[in-house]
Structures are given as C-alpha cells and as structure tokens.
Amino acid sequence: MTTRFDKLGVIIAAIVAYAAFAAPFATLRANRIVPGEARSILEALPPTLGPLLLAVVVVAAVVALLKTPLALRLAASVVALAALALLIGVAGSFLTPEGNSFARISPASGFWLLIFAFTLLLADGLTRLNLSPSARIGVLVVAAAAIGLLLVSGSWNSLSILKEYANRADSFWAEGSKHVTLALGSLAAAVLVGLPLGILCHRVEKLRAGVLNALNIIQTIPSIALFGLLIAPLGWVATHVPGAASLGIRGIGTAPAFVALFLYSLLPVVANTVVGLAGVPRAANDAARGMGMTERQRLFGVEFPLAFPVILTGIRIVLVQNIGLATIAALIGGGGFGVFVFQGVGQTAMDLVLLGAVPTVAMAFTAAIILDALIEMTSTRRREAQPA
Amino acid sequence: MIEIEGITKRYDATTVVDDVSMVIEPRTIAVIVGTSGSGKTTLLRMINRLVEPTAGVIRLDGADNRSLPGYELRRSIGYTIQGHGLFPHRTVAQNIATVPVLLGWDAARTKRRVDELMTLYQLDPQAFGPRYPHELSGGQQQRVGVARALAAEPNVLLMDEPFGALDPIIRNKAQEDLRAIQKRFGTTIILVTHDMEEAVRMGDKIAVMDAGKLVQYARPAEILAKPASAFVETLVGASEKPFRLLSLGRVRDAVETGTAEGEAIPADVSQRDALAELLWSGRPALPVTGADGKPLGRVTVDGLVKRAARPA
Ligand SMILES: Nc1ncnc2c1ncn2[C@@H]1O[C@H](COP(=O)(O)OP(=O)(O)OP(=O)(O)O)[C@@H](O)[C@H]1O
Ligand SMILES: [Mg+2]
C-alpha cells in the first residue's frame, strides 16, 4: 500500500497538534512589564468560539496531512489563517478585565506556531501553483490589504502590541519614515556609487581584486563597531568643514548610520554589477562592436540590459539587508524602528520590542517578494541565452 | 576593392596571422579556408578593426581602414559573427535593425528594410519580427544574423562561418540566396568556412590558410588542379578533386552535338550533378535543354570524365 500522507503535511500536522493542545494561545499580564499567565485556546476564547477554532485548525491540519487537491489545501490554509487572525483579536477583548487599561493580552507561542504552520501550508501551495511574478505581487497586495483592514477595523486594538502603538502613534510613523529613509536612501547612494564603480571594475581588471577585497573587509566589520569607527571622523567633519553641521552631519545620529549602511551596501551592488557584466555572452558583446556601436552604446544598449537581472539581485540583497540593519541605527541616535526595539529591551517590555520588530520584518519580507518578482520579470526572456 | 598588405598579428610571442597579403577584387567573393586555429577569424576581424594588426596595412577602395574611427568603419561593413551573436534581449526585428538605427535611419525606412530582408530569408515579419532569438531554431538564428549584417546595404560583407548550423538543404538555399544578393548589389564578400565544398561553390577566389600563413590564393579551379602544397592537397581532399572540379562547371559548357534518349537535363545544372545523373540512369548520354526547353544537344559520360581530369 502506498502512503497517503503528504510529507510536509506530516510536519504541519505535528506542529498544529502541539500548538493547539499543548502550547498557550495567549498571554495575560496585569501590566506591561510583569510576567504573564498562559491561556489555552479554550480558556482564551468565549465558549462558542474556542471549540470552533479548535475544529477549524484540526480540519485544516487533516487536509494538510493527507494527499489532498491543491485548491483544498490552499483554501484550508487561508481559512485557518483568517480564523486565527480574527480570533486572536476576540481573545484580546475577551481576556481583558472590564475597564482595566493596564492589563496586556498578547499572542503566545501556540498562536505563533499555528500561524507558522499554516503559512507553511499556504507557501507550499503557492509554490506548487507556480505563480507568475505579477500574480505573486497580487497575492502580496491581497494579504497586505487583509492585514490593513484588520488593523483599521480595530479588531486587534485590545492586543498589547497595538496598545503600545496607541500610546505612541505619532512617534511610530516618524520613526517609520526615518527607517525607510535610512534604508532606501543608503541603497540609492550605494547604487549611485556602486554601479559606476562596478562598471569600472569590470573594465579595468587591475582595479577589480583590490576594490572587491576592500569592500569585503568592510562587510565583515560588525555593524556596531562600524558605527563606532565612524563617530570620530564624522565628528571631525562636523566641526571642521563649514556647512557640514547644518546638513545634519554629526558624529552620532543619522549621518554615521547612513554612512555605515551605505558602506555595507556597496559590496553587493559592486560585486553583482561585476558578475552581471562578466556574464554577458561574449558573442553579444562581439556583435555589438562588430555592428559599429560605440563603447557607450554597447554599455547602455547591450551590456547593461543583459546584466540587469543580476544587478537587481544585488539590489534586492542590499534592500532586505538595509531594512534589517537600519534597526541598529537607533543605538547611535539614528532613529528608525530600532528605537522601539531598544526602548523595549531597556524596559523589558516585550510588546514594545515587537512594535519595532514586526513592521521591520514585514517590510523586509515585502521588499524581498517584490524584488524577486521584478528580477524574474526582467530575466525570463533572457534566461535562455543563445549557445556560444 | 580590399587590399591586404603584409598583415601580421602577434599575441605576445605567438604569431596568429603571419605576413598575409591579398587583394579582393570588387564585387567578388573571396573564401578563406583552413583548419581550426589557422587565423581565419583573426584575419577577418582585422579588416573591420575588431582586432588591430601588429603590422601591415588594409585598404578599402584605396583608403586606409584606420582613416575612420573604428565604430564608423564597422557601420559601413556588414559582419556576421561566428555563431550568429544575436542580442538575446532584442527581438528579431530589433536585431536586424541594429545598424540602420545606429546610422540614424528614420523608422519607416528601417521597418521597410527589415521586412524586406525577413521576407528574403523566408521569415514572416509578422510572425518572427516580435520574437526573441531564443525562440528561433539554430538555422533561423543564423539567417537573422546574415540579415542583420546586410541591413544597411554594405558594400563589403565579412562572414565568419555563416552557414555552419544549417542543414544541407537550407544551406544550399542560403548559399544561392547569398550569391543572388551579391550579384544584385555588387557586394564584395569575404567568407570564412571549414567546408571545401562551400568554398568551391561560393568562391571567385579561395584563400587557404595554415598556421597563420596564406599558403595559396587562387581561383577554385587552380586550387584543385595545382595545390601549392601537401597541406592544400589534403584540405581539398584528393579523392574528391575530380568531382569538385566538375561542380565548378555548368552543363551548358559541356554540351556536345547529337541527340540522346532519356529525360533531358537543364543546361544550368552543374556538371557534377549531370555526371551523377548519367551514372545513376546507366546511360552513356542524355539530352540537354535550355531554359526555354529547346534541345541544345547532349552530354556524355566520356565528355564529362575528360573534363574531370587534371587540367593541363
Ligand atoms: N585575443 C587572443 N589572444 C591570444 N590568442 C588569440 C586571441 N584570439 C585568437 N587567438 C589565437 O589565435 C589563433 C587563431 O585564432 P582564430 O580565431 O583566428 O582561428 P580560426 O582560424 O578562426 O579558427 P576556427 O576555425 O576554429 O574559428 C588561435 O590559436 C587562437 O587561440
Ligand atoms: Mg574562427
């Protein structure tokens, strides 16, 4: 007899079984910094909804476990995720004692494991669907819209992370825009400098090894150390170069964070530009020269478009990396979502840490999906380069 | 006219092209043959200055090819690169339009020319124009490569093994087309090939290269009849020589008076094909008819065999 179990489904079902019956679904704390008490699904939800959620996740886990049609698997994962997203909000209001504004309810390990398991099921299904790049962006937009709707509707407002948000809504958006500016600005600067540098390295072989090695060394300096290293020179620039201080250049703050992110970004951009240009078929370059293109025409008309997907891969690496690294800028007063993370760590307020971490992860994830789709779109028709 | 004078190319210590001199008359086809690595491509690329010679001069219609910037020179010379070298990110139509666009032709004129060339090479402009090179067969890619080289109606065309990837039937057709285009536009062509058969069919003159040296440069009949060295002899293929010689002539030049039984042979068939037909049908002679269908006389096995012998 052949096995009727799906391999990934076995793992998903095991996780679901543990998360639903053994792990806590939500945590209840008297205020934002004391340790919490665990609540299971049945304890955290009203008597009708608790068993309902259990039934939904069990059925979805069975669908995952058995070899079932793809559409059914996708539907099961979406329904389970939607139920979890809605009911965690319900748990928030259900567990909050009447009129108590200090109590904090947050999702616990069981909830996160269930989300993880069904996201796995969804991702597996979507991979098997083999979606086109634009369809993947479409799925992303739908998911983002659903989450946005839940946020706006207020059904999560009783959860701890949103209570933290409510207390500092203004600074959330201010730090958020600083975070984005840091990540995107340093990326833009790295592309502006790294692209020509990569082209130069491609053309001048003598330069290549030296530049790439230097950038490699920068890449290995721990970020905190790099911030530290930059404090002295930037402080010197601020006091000795007229006008620098008024541009916001200082030993601490946004400037060193920006410079550090920029330096980290250079290696992927330069290296991928070099690799991309080196991968342009020799015959295409040869033909370009043979047809009478000037060096400029060949660079912009042939080499660059053919190397573009690889260069874009470098940009993707940098963007995702910068979104994450920008968190650390807060340590030297550079702002960004890291502000909440480090404040939260200082106050041992986990919810505040999450207020900084969750949007950062979401942004990195979104950037990765969008750029992967872009890379695929630009490279499909070039993927099958001609034989030599 | 292309005059190559004392051209030498050295890479470090190795001499790749060694003191080659030859003159290619206007409106003729010169074919360069030789073993792999003998310097054919390098010689060809020194004409459009993709490779700069170590010594020597190349003149095109009397003017030194260094009197123009390299890119301008190359826009005026058609070039099909070994292995077609189409731009993978550009459509077939865009590929063919490369040089016209570089020369700043207006869009309508460019499109007209592209459509004309695609039609000539039996690639439907509607169906193939918007495709990318990887969506074409190897033979189609190669035809696009030739069409791209012809796009700006160059006087000089350099072709590096342009028909390598074609099957025998399409290759024959492509060779005939090239001959027709060459006649019509009076193009001067230098064609590199490995294939002696192709060299004899296509060349007004054949240049044989060996280890960077030009060992013989002569009309096909002379190469076949009087190979300058053992190397040329081997390249020609001793056992093939009589048939190659016959393939140079047309039946109209071998017609004898008299009549014969059997199916008539058209006068513009090659003598080689005529001999094959005679041997296959088992007859000593067959009638010959002109293009208008009128009988011209007959062709005989004896007569053709005499012609296949080494010329005096
Ligand atoms: N850029 C270069 N640097 C060093 N040596 C080279 C270079 N280009 C070509 N050669 C050498 O010159 C010789 C002749 O090369 P070329 O490409 O002209 O040969 P070919 O006759 O066209 O051969 P094939 O029939 O295989 O195409 C070869 O030995 C090759 O290795
Ligand atoms: Mg060659």
| Structural class category of chain B | alpha/beta
Q: How many DSSP E strands of chain A?
A: 3
Number of domains of chain A: 2
N-end to C-end Cα span of chain A = 50 Å
Q: What is the beta-strand fraction of chain A?
A: under 5%
The percent range for strand residues of chain B is 15-25%
Shape of chain A: flat
CATH superfamily of the largest domain in chain B: P-loop containing nucleotide triphosphate hydrolases
Lateral strand order in the biggest sheet of chain B: 6-7-8-3-9-10
Strand order of the largest sheet of chain A: 2-1-3
* DSSP E strands of chain B, number: 13
This entry's quaternary arrangement is: heterodimer
* Mean pLDDT across all amino acids of chain A: 87
The CATH class of the largest domain in chain A is Mainly Alpha
**CATH architecture classification of the largest domain in chain A:** Orthogonal Bundle
Return residue spans of chain A where pLDDT drops below 50 for at least 5 consecutive residues: 383-388
Present the secondary structure layout.
The complex is a heterodimer of chains A (388) and B (312).
Chain A: H1 7-21, E1 26-29, E2 37-39, H2 41-44, H3 49-65, H4 70-95, E3 104-107, H5 109-129, H6 133-153, H7 160-167, H8 169-203, H9 205-220, H10 223-240, H11 254-278, H12 282-290, H13 295-325, H14 338-346, H15 350-383
Antiparallel strand pairs in A: 1-2, 1-3
Helix pairs in contact in A: 1-3, 1-5, 3-4, 4-5, 6-15, 7-15, 8-9, 8-11, 8-13, 9-11, 10-11, 11-13, 12-13, 13-15, 14-15
Chain B: E1 2-11, E2 14-24, E3 29-34, H1 40-47, E4 55-60, E5 63-64, H2 70-75, E6 77-80, H3 92-96, H4 98-102, H5 107-120, H6 125-128, H7 138-150, E7 156-160, H8 168-185, E8 188-193, H9 196-202, E9 205-210, E10 213-218, H10 220-225, H11 230-236, H12 241-248, E11 265-266, H13 271-281, E12 285-289, E13 295-300, H14 301-307
Parallel strand pairs in B: 3-8, 3-9, 6-7, 7-8, 11-12
Antiparallel strand pairs in B: 1-2, 1-4, 4-5, 9-10, 12-13
The structure holds adenosine-5'-triphosphate and magnesium ion (MG).
